[in-house]
Amino acid sequence: MNSASSLDIDFSAPAAEVAPALIGVILTLNGVGGRIVEVEAYDHDDPASHCFGGITPRNQVMFGPPCHAYVYRSYGIHWCFNIVCCPPGHGAGVLIRAIEPLFGIDTMRTRRGMDNVRLLCAGPGRLCQALGITMEQSGTAVNRPPFQLLPATEPVTVVTGPRIGISKAKETPWRFGLADSRFLSRSFCQ
DNA sequence: AAAAGGATTCACT
DNA sequence: GTGAATCCTTTTG
């Protein structure tokens, strides 16, 4: 696309600031992807975060440079995709939970083995399967090929709520979503 | 070397 | 809305 359209997001900012800024952003991997409609922030001093307790071989990527991918295996079955933020050494990231499919939908259908577009990327494990994200991408930059990040094409209204599927710090309202999107993994109760 | 713990998904009621 | 499966990765001894 045009070189002037670099993303207006400072990934060295705190996760809770980067997360809502990512709503509406276009994310693709090898041309397959769409608009981010749901994310969650996970910060360094957050008991629910993999970063909590300090650096380990597994989470070292999140302590590395921002704007990189942190991918991990969930429940032994699914991949989950995060974008690292905050300065190196801090340890924080934003979990991408849902995407509105826009590009390469047929590829997504094949990978997911289903036709229902609404369910192709509605969930962290699902969107990784649809985009083809695996450990291979962990530690790579998200703003360079084969990834591509483009600014939101139109103004967005961001809604907030408690995070999903965690056992600790459930109260922290660090889940962000695109208001009224039908591609959310679950609806917001507000 | 072994054990424990999931930032989930799917199917069913 | 509820319950169960499912397999890997990380962590610890």
Give a structural overview.
The protein contains three helices and eight strands, in the order αβββββααβββ. The protein has 190 residues and is of the alpha+beta class. The protein has one domain (15-178): Methylpurine-DNA glycosylase (MPG) (3-methyladenine DNA Glycosylase, Chain A), CATH 3.10.300. Strands 1, 2, 3, 4, 5, 6, 7 and 8 form an eight-stranded antiparallel β-sheet that branches. Helix 2 crosses helix 3 (124-131). The radius of gyration is 15 Å and the shape is globular. The chain binds a DNA duplex (13 and 13 nucleotides) through residues 40, 42, 48-50, 56-58, 72-78, 80, 82, 95, 97, 123-126, 163-167, 185.
Write the layout of secondary structure elements.
Elements: H1 15-22, E1 26-29, E2 32-42, E3 69-74, E4 78-84, E5 93-103, H2 105-112, H3 124-131, E6 147-150, E7 158-161, E8 175-178
Antiparallel strand pairs: 1-2, 1-6, 2-5, 2-8, 3-4, 4-5, 7-8
The chain binds a DNA duplex (13 and 13 nucleotides) through strand 3, strand 4 and helix 3.
What is the name of the CATH topology?
Answer: 3-methyladenine DNA Glycosylase, Chain A
CATH level 1 class label:
Alpha Beta
From the alpha carbons, calculate the radius of gyration and give it in angstroms. Answer: 15 Å
CATH superfamily: Methylpurine-DNA glycosylase (MPG)
Helix and strand element order: HEEEEEHHEEE
Number of structural units classed as domains: 1
Strand content: 25-35%
What's the average pLDDT?
Answer: 91
CATH architecture: Roll
Specify the biggest β-sheet. 8 strands, antiparallel
Shape annotation: globular
Total of helices:
3
First-residue to last-residue Cα separation: 37 Å
Question: Stretches where pLDDT falls below 50 for ≥5 residues?
Answer: none
How many DSSP-defined strands? Answer: 8
Relative helix content:
10-25%
Structural class: alpha+beta
